[in-house]
Amino acid sequence: MLTAYTSDEIRAAEQVLMARLPGGTLMRRAATGLAVACVKALPRVYGSRVVLLIGSGDNGGDALYAGAALARRGARVHAILAGARTHEGGLAELRRVGGRTYDLRGISDPARTEGAKAGTSASGPAKALETDPMLVNLIGGADVIVDGLVGIGGTGALREPYATLARMSAGSPGIVVAVDVPSGVDASTGEVEGEAVRAHLTVTFGAVKAGLLIDPGASHAGTLRQVDIGLGPFLPAPGVVTLTGPDVAERMPRAEPESNKYRRGVVGVVAGSDRFTGAAVLAVGGAVRAGAGLVRFASAAEAVQQVRAKWPEAVTKIITPEEGVREVGRVQAWVLGPGMGTDDDAHALARSVLDSDVPVLVDADGLTLATRDRSLLRRSAPTLITPHAGELGRLLGVPVEEIEERRLHHARLAAAELGVTVLLKGSTTLVAEEGRPVRVNLTGTPWLATGGTGDVLAGIAGAFLAGGLSCYEAASCAAFVHGLAARMAAGGPEGGQAPIAALDVALELPSAIRTLTASR
Ligand SMILES: NC(=O)C1=CN([C@@H]2O[C@H](COP(=O)(O)OP(=O)(O)OC[C@H]3O[C@@H](n4cnc5c(N)ncnc54)[C@H](O)[C@@H]3O)[C@@H](O)[C@H]2O)[C@@H](O)CC1
Ligand SMILES: Nc1ncnc2c1ncn2[C@@H]1O[C@H](COP(=O)(O)OP(=O)(O)O)[C@@H](O)[C@H]1O
Ligand SMILES: [K+]
Fold it and tell me: Distance from the CA of 92 to the CA of which of 168, 298, 405, 501 falls in 20 to 30 A?
């Protein structure tokens, strides 16, 4: 299991460790790791052009010491001093080994005070910076740009001149290496307010910061490299974690010698309608291919006909809203919602499923119904909801953009407010449940952003619920294998990249699961 922390947690651990070591030890460890990462990123160090963006804190100190190490190996290092102060030891070291500096005070005095307003528009002093020939040449001509503007001490939107430097570095052909965290990204949450550095590589110290795993922060961080500075024993229990392949293999339901289809788990799927049948086919497909012992599918005649045609493995039943799922037979978990519609009949059907005493996964139209009638989610058995940002926004009465900007906050909020387990889908998938660390799934691919893949995910999680996993475990394992199957379907044996359809994801599931279980 990979663990991730907030800035405060990291800082507290650093204080304890620092008190036991000679002054400057941690920064030296950090800077050495950073320099090594830069060396690896460069085709050749000798003669390469390295530009350091230096802020006023210790983050700038790390960059200066690392820059000095690179200068010692023959790199041409230029530090752009952007803060009101500069780390003295780091600056002296860089100068000692022939590193050069460019002090921005000379060209944009008014913008340089620490209290200057956050700005994203290139006007006034920012414009002066953006057209300054020296700066343009340095940043435009760099082989590597090291972002040492702010680290875990950053708060709020990047102020000037940092914001302009972040923007300029994005336009450079050089490799951008972020020190600890891309400046402008909230290290604890991944939130980005205004401008932020877009790094190819982030070299982070001591432990992974949660904001490096969660979008929009995650997509600003690029590849992550962690440098050990000895923080491990001093870290608290993490608030954010990520499952690895072996973690998932260990948790997933297994087929035991004594298994039969009922013991392996019967999942009921209520999805589709006379008008919409595709979602039902995909949700059943996810459940069948993820290893449910048996899938019982109950819906309107048209959806039943389509599911029977595609998945002969499923046991199907045509039901009416009045009778609900009473006669469908015993299941260990339900999947409710994809394509079922949102009218009064659908509401009656949802009520009959949610009245049951087994875990229910609510997705898609089921979530729309729950938005209109929150009482649907008040139940004694466990409930897992699987919204995308739009659906969660409607459930919480928050604009979709706000959900996307503050994913961690809203996933936790929904779990607490609704008393359910939340799987928030999107470019970063999060699983939140009260009292548990938020699980971040890292296996997805942007190729998943295509119609119907969410229905497949609902089927997978339903199969895992029926197999006996809790909502929290079923959701996180399902997100993992869903992302992995998509990656494999999009990548193929040659490792290229190609579009995928939702059904491809379902079909790839056994192969994806095989790669996990092979190692257990
Ligand atoms: N504390 C430790 O033990 C270690 C810290 N290290 C480094 O130290 C960093 C933290 O250093 P600091 O605590 O000095 O903090 P930072 O260097 O991250 O930032 C603090 C400075 O940035 C300014 N600032 C904050 N938000 C800003 C914004 N939005 N726009 C413009 N300026 C902003 C502050 O006014 C302050 O001057 C870590 O990220 C890491 O790089 C490493 O050397 C490893 C050891
Ligand atoms: N940019 C992205 N990167 C990775 N995964 C994504 C991205 N966009 C969407 N996804 C994933 O694709 C799936 C889409 O599900 P959903 O929004 O419910 O679509 P649908 O309703 O069409 O099935 C989810 O698993 C989601 O996490
Ligand atoms: K940084």
Answer: 168
